[in-house]
Amino acid sequence: KYSTAAGATDPETCKSCDLGNYFLASLGVCVGCDAGTFSSSIGLIDSGHCSACSAGTFSTEVGATHIEVCTTCYPGTFSISSASTCSECVVGEYSVHGATACATCIGGYFNPSSAASVCSECLAGTFSNSGESTCRACEMGFYGSADGTSACSSCEAGMYSSFLSATRCNLCAPGEFSVDGVCNICVAGTYSSLWGASVCAICEAGTYSTAFGALNESTCIPCGPGKYSRAAGVAMNICEDCESGKYSSALISTTCHSCSICQGSGSELQRCNASFNAVCHDDALRLSAKYLFTFAPISVSGFSTFAFLRIHSVPIRPNLKWLGSIFLGANDVFSNFALLVLLNYDQQSVVFFMVLASMLIFIAICIGLYACCKDSL
Fold it and tell me: If you ran DSSP here, which 8-state letter would residue 245 be given?
């Protein structure tokens, strides 16, 4: 209460502060409740007894006498209690009607302006963290297939995205590979024949390749006979020659083999070199891969004739050469005669001696043999 009468002795001169006011002792007068507050009672002794507008509402009126002066904050704003005005939400945040605080936009959503009532959704190929004012593009090697993405996904092995804001990944082409969302060309010594390869295949040991981006194994070049290589995936020709006393006859070799040692004098049909092993022979003479005919004389009813035997032989050796033949005996076609056959076998002359019956019979048998056995000869 207060009194304006000087020297008053009657209590009736004391008056109560009206509704919406409180007594300001320092001045000895009643003043209105501050904006954001109100008073529906009389005789308030200080401002602390004014009632506050609740959070989420505000009031600009001084000396308000009822709660109805407290107005709800609009969407995009908020207030604490006793507020004379609502504050706007900052970028990256939003609020609904009568909010007491702003909410942060969740990941995959953004808000570029203040006083927003909703957050906008990031489009496919972009993303955002919580509370951001804008969406960011997915980087190369990543993609976002749906709207509202909080993080981009990395391309799987063998796939790539070569531009920003990709919504999907593509397969790497043959001759390429990918482990981090970016296709790389297969380096020399490797190749890839598949779409979407996560690794390039390596040229096997004994081969090499100088080609980049090779599509298939045919680009791997064999070292060839007489050479070898132990390393796989080689990008240059590092094939080594076989050492003396060793050989490699295969196109692809990782090591050289020791040459065979033939036993006995003159038993080596083929000498060992870097590309071929030595070829040894046994004591039996090898003539032809087909058939060898031998003839033996037979006497029937006083007439001389001959019979023949057919025996199979093993393959002919590279240095077997025909030197010729010599007829011995009478020139009469009905006479017995001998035939010398000269062959060169491993640089040594070999003589075959055959005793034959009459020349006419010999010729007839030869014609018959040719007719029936020409496919085997």
Answer: T
Distance from C-alpha of 274 to C-alpha of 83, rounded to nearest angstrom: 100
For the chain, report the end-to-end CA distance as a whole number of angstroms. Answer: 146
d(CA 377, CA 100): 110
Predicted confidence (pLDDT) per residue in 303-361, tens digit: 343 333 333 333 344 444 444 444 444 444 444 444 444 444 444 444 444 444 445 55
Token pair recorded at residue 285: 């003479």
Report d(CA 162, CA 172) in Å as an integer: 11
Helix (H) or strand (E) holding 363: helix 359-373
The structure's pTM equals 0.54
Q: Which residues contact 354 (CB under 8 A, 6 or more apart)?
A: 294, 295, 338, 339, 341
pLDDT digits (tens, 9 = 90+) for 150-184: 999 999 999 999 899 999 999 999 999 998 889 99
CA–CA separation, 78 and 97 (whole Å):
8
**Domain ranges across the chain:** 11-72, 89-171, 202-280, 291-373
Q: Are 59 and 72 in contact (CB under 8 A)?
A: no
Q: Which fold has domain 202-280?
A: Tumor Necrosis Factor Receptor, subunit A; domain 2 (2.10.50)
For the cut 80, the answer to whether the pLDDT of residue 53 exceeds it is yes
Q: Are 147 and 167 in contact (CB under 8 A)?
A: no
Whether the CB-CB separation of 172 and 186 falls below 8 Å is answered with no
Beta-bridge partners for 300: 303
Tell me the C-alpha distance between 287 and 292, whole Å: 8
